[in-house]
Amino acid sequence: MKRHLTVLGCLSGAVVLGTGPALAGGDPHWVETGTAYTDTLGGGQGLAGRADGSLLYRGLTDIPLDLRVKGWNHVGDPDIARGYVFDAYQGADTATSKMFAVTTPAGKRYEYVHTLNPGEKVNNSFAALSPDAQWLVSGEWGDQNRLQVFPAPLLNPSTPSAGGALKEAWQITLDKPVRDIQGCDFVTDTRLVCASNDATGTLFPEIRPLLQVDLPHRLDGGPVTGEVRSLFALPQRSVCTQGSFEAEGVDYDASSGTLRAEVIPPGVCAVATAVYSYRQA
Questions:
Q1: Is 4 exposed, middle or buried (0-12, 13-18, 19+ CB in 10 A)?
Q2: Cα dist. 27→100, 172, 178, 204, 231 in Å?
Q3: Rounded distance between C-alpha atoms, residue 62 and residue 113, angstroms
């Protein structure tokens, strides 16, 4: 589960430019193009690009009071589709449901509650909308061999028009296990990138890798298997040396071709989240 931060004050440093390794078979070579920073409490859980090029950030302070009162104490990595903002919420470890909130371009919010299936974890780490805005992909914490797929609340006509119950449609079965996925976003109809906070190096050679999940076809309402590979390790650069880094949200802006990934630095530097930008070479 993503940690809750109450730290104050930091100094954080980073090398601005770098590259990730190219992969065989025509896979992308992502080149690091810059670094920005955002307040962790107000933006360290995730980000999403708006149509005007600005960024929407999510952090612990973004949870509305009325949702906190209902027990939703964690917000994950968001996404935006057709001007609608999708947020992933979770409650206490003992909760039996998770919730997706959809905010319309006019500012009206609707809540869609998913009752946990047998064996499903309470975590609701992110919301990722398919490019056709019909399917919502989400994921759980820990070791997983799947990503969950739901009809996109409000935009998929199979969902209630003003909030309500949301059932899982099916799953993306992964051809190899992943660990501690914090956020995913679609790059194409058949490719996602996902930020993993796995620091063990046991599943992939990289520490806190950015993963790529390739699908055989676009999501269409049926089960599908995704091919997983590691692209590169997310940067772990900071003047603070005591404590652990934490990979967080990820976003791909199709209009500009910019990929962004968040990493919270360790120790007192955790007050400012680094946002690394990439483009395909």
A1: exposed
A2: 32, 21, 20, 17, 9
A3: 19
- Provide the pLDDT for residue 129: 98
Q: Which residues of 56-69 are buried (b: 16+ CB within 10 A; e: fewer)?
A: bbbbbebbeeebee
> Which residue matches tokens 């940067």?
235
Per-residue pLDDT tens over the stretch 199-237: 999 999 999 999 999 999 999 989 999 999 999 999 999
User: 191 near 215, Cβ under 8 Å?
Assistant: yes
- Asked whether 195 and 144 are in contact (CB, 8 A), the reply is no
CA atoms within 13 A on the CB side of 103: 10
Give the end-to-end CA distance of the chain in Å, rounded to a whole number.
34
| The three-state (H, E, C) secondary structure of 176-201, written as one string | EEEECEEEEEEEECCEEEEEECCCCC
Predicted pLDDT of residue 8:
33
DSSP bridge pairs for 163: 161
pLDDT of residue 28: 72
How far apart, in whole angstroms, are the C-alpha atoms of residue 251 and residue 49?
A: 7
Give yes or no for a contact between 41 and 10, defined as CB atoms under 8 angstroms apart: no
- Span 242-247, mean pLDDT? 96
pLDDT of 22 reads 37
Taking a C-beta distance cutoff of 8 angstroms, is the pair 128, 185 a contact? yes
- State yes or no: pLDDT of 11 exceeds 60: no
